[in-house]
Amino acid sequence: MTIVSNIDFHCHTNASDGGLSPSELIDRAYGRGLNAIAITDHDLTAGVADAVQRAALLNAKLLNGDADAPVETYIKENAEVNGVDNGELHRAPSERTLIVIPGVEFSTTWYDEQIHIVGLGIDPNNDSLKELEAKLKFARTQRAVAIGEKLKRLGFDRPYERCCEQAREGASITRGNYARLIFQDGKAKSVDDAFHKFLRRGQDAYVKSVWGPIEETVEVIKAAGGIAVLAHPRRYKISNMRLRKLVYEFKKAGGEAIEVSSSQQRQLDRDYLVQLCHKYEMLASLGSDFHNEGFHRDLGQNIDLPSDVTPVWHSPILERYGMGANFKQRLVHITYKKEDATSAS
Ligand code: AMP
Ligand code: MN
Ligand code: MN
Ligand code: MN
Hints:
Blueprint: E1 2-5, E2 7-8, H1 22-31, E3 36-39, H2 48-64, E4 79-85, E5 99-110, E6 113-120, H3 127-153, H4 159-166, H5 175-184, H6 191-199, H7 214-223, E7 227-230, H8 240-252, E8 257-262, H9 267-279, E9 283-287, H10 316-319, E10 331-336, H11 341-344
Parallel strand pairs: 2-3, 3-5, 7-8, 8-9
Antiparallel strand pairs: 1-10, 4-10, 5-6, 6-7
This protein binds adenosine monophosphate and manganese (II) ion (3 copies).
The site of one manganese (II) ion has 4 residues, from loops.
């Protein structure tokens, strides 16, 4: 069974390694019935303004009852809806408006481990934030060029240039961009396979990266008015004991939330993250980490928060965007017949 949530606080555009432009991503969010989305590109906020603008236009269309207002399209003909939490399946246009939360996903290094910290509700024009963005942009470009050179020696045609051409101007180029290129060139069976064959530690196109410390990153997010969220904690290859140390240090640095629910996460892992939320008194966030169509993750897909955690949107910071304690997560439970297994995964 697939569930689709109306809130998704982690996704990417072509301002970093996502496949869709900010406006296309927003269109997809309406199509998937979202009511709140955070744009969280790697190390920059360049995609936020276009997304906010697009949503303002489409919200106005919904509220005006325009004929070309967005429609929900995520329930396919061969799908069966098994239940809707908090509401009806068919909603009035005024219930389908979308809140866009300005966000970012910062790369940090913690004891040689690459740790991602999502900032929610940040002011993209804040000076400290812009300063950190500029610093990371420099480090990222150097590394992306170095990876490109390695791939070129391995026979790829203009890898760095082609990654830049595929992304938006000034984008953060990550290993995610390269993985897609390697897959497109037919040199790997999937994006994941491209990582295994070329990009991960120990492989031929790997280039080590050293990002900033957690403390500095959290400080910048807070200075920019945002909430620091520890992204996808179960994706790091660290033991439970190390993870507890990470959460402890993250909280000490001013971190306030944990991404408790991510797509493609086991129930067992989510349960453990719920425990950590209680132990360290953290707010709970959720995010699909959507990048591209067709890679088994989609906006709002299979992310939900249990009722015994405090959702991150209860924070006064997100109240400013019209969220707060009255904002309810709405889940649509769907089963697909076999022929549409890709959407169901
Ligand atoms: P970077 O920050 O340049 O090291 O790239 C990290 C990005 O690469 C992540 O945000 C993902 O989008 C992507 N990524 C990391 N590991 C994998 C993997 N095993 N398969 C597919 N994409 C991955
Ligand atoms: Mn990515
Ligand atoms: Mn990440
Ligand atoms: Mn991400």
